[in-house]
Every structure is written in C-alpha cells, then in structure tokens.
Design goal:
By secondary structure, the chain is mostly helical. About 60% of the residues lie in helices and about 5% in strands.
C-alpha cells in the first residue's frame, strides 16, 4: 500500500477497531448459549446492544463516505482494492439503517431468543409469538430500507444479500423447484432400497463423557487447533467465536452417540475454515469468510463428503470401539448403513409401489442428508412469504404443517417445538439465512468432485487418515482466500466452473442409489 493512501489507511484502522468490538460480541454471544445463567440474560442483551450501537456509530460516521470515495482514487494493491470493495459493501448495509432500528432489532432479538429457549421446551407458541412479532416487524422494516438502497427485486432479496451476496430469491426458488422432483424420487428409491437391508442399532447408553472424549479425538484427527478453540455444550450446536479463538458446541444424547459425533465433525468444518482464514487480513472485511454458503460448504464437506463416507467410517471404527466397547452394530458395513440412513418409512401399497414418506425426521438439524434439503426448501418458502408481506406471523404454524406433510409426510399439528419453533435463526431475525445450507451442500459436492479428479486416491487418503493433500487444497483454494474474491470467482478458480448443482445430485445418487 502506498504511504500516500491516507483515506484507505483510515478506513482500515476503523475496521480494525470494529474487529475488536466484534471479537467481544462473538465471545459474549457464545457464552450466552453455553455458560450464562438465566438471570444474566437482560444485562447481556443490553451489553451486546451497546456494542452493536457502538459498531454501527463507527460505520455510520459521516466522514466514512468521503473516505470511501477518496480511497477509490488512491493507488492500492489488488488485495487492498478487494478489501475496499468489502468495506464499501458493509458500509452500504450499515448506512441504510437508522441507529434506532439497529439497537431495537438487537434488543428484540436477544429477548426473543432467550425466551425461546424455555418456550420451545414447553411448546408455548402463544408465548413465543408475543416476542416474535416485533422481531418480524423490525426485520421487514430493515428489508424494505435495504431493498430501496440495493435495488433488489424483493425485500427478502435484500436480507438474503447479507448472507449470500450475488444470489437472488428468484434464482434459488427456480433451483429448488427443479430439485424437488429429483429429491422426492431419490427419497422414495433410497427408502425402497434400504427397506431390504438389515441394520443393527448400537446399544446404549453411551455415557456423555465417553462421547465427548470420542468427539475430541476425532476433532484432533481432522486438524482442529485446540490452542485456538474449544468444544462445549449448548441446546443448538453452532460454531462461534473468532478466527483466533473459535468456539464450537454440540449436544449429547446418551442413546445415540452418532448425533453428537456428526455434529462435532460438522462444526469442526466451520472451525477449520475460521482458523485458516488469511491472518494478514484477520481484522479486515477481506479476511472474513466469503459467504454463509461457502462457510456451510466447509462444514458439509467435513460431515458429508468426509465424515459419512465409508472410508472415514473404516478409519474411526477402532476409535468407536475404544470408547464404547465392541458391538456387532459397529461392523463397518453396518455403520455405513446407519450413517447413510434415510429417516423416512413408507407404507407399502403393493409389491411394486410405495406411498410418500410418513415418518421422516421432525428436526432439521437431525435430518438425514437426503431429506435435509426439503427442510430448507420449506423454510425458504415460508420466510420469503413472511418478509415480502404475503404471510402473517399467526399463519406460520398452519403453513408449516401443510408443507411438512406435503414435502416430508410429517404431521406437526400442535407440535410447535418440533415444528415452526425448532430453529434459533428466526428468533433474532436471521431471515434469508436458510438457503445457504443447501447452497453449501452443492459447493461441497463440487469441491469433492474436483478433488477426486485431482487425487484419484481420494478415498484411500481418507481411509488411511492422510488428510494433508485434501486440507492443503482447501487451505490454498478456499480458506486462505477469505473474501478477497467474490463467491463466483472463488468457486471458478477452485474448480474451473461456477456452481453446478448437478454435482450435488450426482453425489446423492451415488451414495443412496
């Protein structure tokens, strides 16, 4: 950077301060979920709101616009120019929004999320919507302001741009509409195939301490840096913290160790991305994760492309036996069947025909790989209609119930805690986030397709625990790039083409059919 690039330097200094504020907010948010006692909620919400207000005030300082305009004229390196692009993008989002709205939405979200943690457990929809209505109203207000500034087609598009720049709801809607028939057919065919298989269920209980020890051992196996992160417990598994101090959580079920194990592998994928973002840019926007879809591609690469593969299961079988003892259910072929089980049962009409699934999993985070996209499609359709003013908060349960029955054959009527109250995302207004999960699955499948071409012994590398080449490729092509490239540039440079959903469908066919 030229020493005369004073405006850019001033912008970079401001964003270094913002990084420090965000560090505190991230750790405080993790603590709220993992450790904070109930009586700390109000004070924590006020503290986080104050931090959000302080960050917003820095980015909305009137001098920022002049600095951005002047920096555009300065002599910058290619990476500095990319950072300036990301600063302007972030600044645009911030300066669309009144300070009062930012503070109000943060307070409403904190209040709603905290109450949800007990209201969900008691199936209290009526109590929940008293806090949820103002969150939705504030989110719609935010969306309409952003739509006017960003010139998006719909208010929902404007919210989605916060998580997945470059995508639109019309593109995703068309994509999902194209995928649904293929997914429906694959689910039916996979369940028909699996109905003929004999599968042994592991016999618990599986002590929580043993599950934790197994999870920690596998985190180490796939490269988690324990000097820069840790594993804890929360109601909803997540990856939080900051690149220098990554915090992941899981939850344990003594009757099913696989739930926590795959959750740990999934969150470790997120964590390894964070731990390997470009440290030279760690306190700048260009050093952040590219998008939520790219972030999810890392967790799903670890979980689906590595963790549920037959090769990885062969690798970790001795560790499973080490912690839980031997069990006929721990034979490799049986574990492979368990880890790729479609959680849906069909009612047989005759020898050649199956009805639609009648007992798929209620819970998105516990759903299998094949039915999971249906959960995402349902949420996308509901939140898009909600933010665009085509659906009221009071009508969510009815629409949810109808779509769950149509898409997955599940009856959720009256079961709010396992229906429309199950996710944390909506409680603080994170509308537009859900589509990134399935986009991430598509990206992950595309990376794996490319890696298998580059390394014909890809499966052997996994089975022998030789991850160096795989992780080196991820580090060079994804992790170290941060947000220095746009999403499409990142994917094209890494794989030679833009996002191609056919690799995802090809992966599902190969694994399940």
């Amino acid at each position: 950077m030229s020493l005369t690039a004073a405006s850019y330097q001033a912008l970079a200094k401001t964003y270094a301060r913002l990084h420090n504020f965000n560090h505190l907010a991230a750790i405080a948010s993790w603590d709220s979920s993992a450790n904070m006692p109930p009586k700390g909620a109000e004070a924590r919400a006020n503290a986080l709101a104050e931090l959000a207000l302080l960050s917003h005030s820095l980015k909305s300082d009137p001098k920022m616009k002049d600095l951005l305009d002047e920096a555009e004229k300065e002599s910058l390196t290619e990476q500095e120019r990319a950072n300036l692009r990301e600063i302007r993008y972030d600044w645009t989002f911030t300066n669309c929004l009144p300070t009062e709205l930012v503070e109000r939405k943060s307070l409403l979200g904190s209040k709603c999320e905290h109450a949800w943690r007990t209201q969900r457990a008691t199936n209290d929809w009526n109590g929940f919507i008293e806090n949820f209505r103002p969150v939705v109203a504030a989110s719609i207000e935010e969306a309409r302001i952003l739509q006017a500034e960003l010139h998006t087609e719909t208010p929902y598009d404007a919210l989605m741009a916060k998580y997945e720049p470059g995508q639109s709801s019309s593109i995703i809607r068309n994509l999902f509409q194209q995928m649904r028939p293929s997914l429906t057919a694959m689910i039916k065919e996979a369940v028909d195939k699996q109905a003929k298989e004999t599968v042994l269920q592991p016999k618990g209980p599986f002590p929580i301490q043993k599950q934790k020890e197994l999870g920690l051992e596998i985190m180490k196996l796939v490269g988690f840096d324990f000097d820069g992160g840790r594993l804890d417990v929360s109601m909803h598994p997540f990856c939080g913290g900051v690149p220098e101090d990554v915090r992941i959580t899981t939850r344990y079920n003594e009757e099913d160790f696989m739930e926590s194990l795959m959750g740990v592998i999934h969150e470790t994928g997120h964590a390894r991305y964070e731990q390997n973002l470009p440290r030279d840019w760690v306190n700048q926007p260009a050093g952040k994760a590219r998008s939520m879809g790219i972030h999810e591609s890392q967790s799903l690469f670890f979980e689906m492309q590595i963790g549920r593969s037959a090769e990885f299961i062969r690798l970790i079988r001795p560790l499973i036996i080490k912690h839980f003892g031997d069990d006929p259910a721990f034979e490799v072929d049986n574990l492979v069947k368990l880890y790729t089980r479609v959680k849906a049962d069909y009612i047989r009409v005759d020898a050649d025909e199956l009805t639609y699934p009648m007992h798929a999993d209620y819970i998105r985070v516990d759903a299998d790989e094949l039915t999971y996209p249906m959960h995402v499609i349902l949420r996308f359709e509901i939140e898009e209609a909600l933010i665009n003013g085509q659906l009221s908060v009071d009508d969510i349960p009815q629409v949810w119930d109808a779509k769950m029955m149509e898409y997955l054959g599940v009856d959720t009527r009256g079961n709010f805690k396992n229906g429309c109250m199950q996710d944390i995302h909506w409680t603080d207004g994170a509308f537009g986030y859900f589509p990134t999960y399935t986009l991430g699955a598509m990206y992950a499948a595309q990376y794996a397709h490319f890696l298998k071409r580059q390394f014909p012994d890809f499966g052997h590398k996994i089975e022998s625990g030789q991850f160096d080449d795989i992780f080196a490729w991820l580090r060079e092509n994804i992790w170290s790039k941060g947000s220095l490239l746009t999403t499409d540039e990142l994917v094209r440079q890494a794989t030679g083409e833009s996002l191609n959903p056919e690799y995802y469908l090809e992966h599902l066919r190969s694994r399940y059919l």
